[in-house]
Specification:
- By secondary structure, this protein is an all-beta fold.
- Helix content is about 0%, strand content about 60%.
- Strands 2, 4, 5, 6, 9, 10 and 11 form a seven-stranded mixed sheet that branches.
- β7 and β8 form a beta hairpin.
């Protein structure tokens, strides 16, 4: 069965950067996509970004547009999230999950069956 494991979280100062990894154990379908989500204390889970495994098409939520970059390495079954210009508002547990693909584009707000355990990102001075 497919398993997803996030890593790379930690404590950084405002304006700093982190790169998160989502490593898959098992087979990822070529017609699938991986998305990144986050959940802060007392808030609902928020979709951040997603990328298709076949064509590498990506989408971003407005709060991270221009600051975060999603990428993938199909040979390694790994998806990355490069986070730049981090703000205190970015503090959350970050998760990766499989998401739907429609018309060759991933749908960041529609996760499917598989989730990682999450990795904590704290942005504070």
């Amino acid at each position: 069965q497919l398993q997803l494991v996030e890593s790379g979280g930690g404590l950084v100062q405002p304006g700093g950067s982190l790169r998160l990894s989502c490593a898959a154990s098992g087979f990822i379908l070529d017609a699938s996509a991986i998305g990144w989500f986050r959940q802060a204390p007392g808030k609902e889970r928020e979709a951040i970004s997603c990328i298709t495994m076949s064509g590498g098409r990506s989408n971003y939520a407005d709060p991270v547009q221009g600051r975060f970059i999603i990428s993938r390495d199909n040979a390694k079954n790994t998806v990355y999230l490069q986070m730049n210009s981090l703000k205190p508002e970015d503090t959350a547990v970050y998760y990766c999950a499989t998401v739907l693909v429609l018309g060759g584009t991933c749908i960041p707000d529609l996760p499917t069956d598989y989730w990682g355990q999450g990795t904590q990102v704290t942005v504070s001075s």
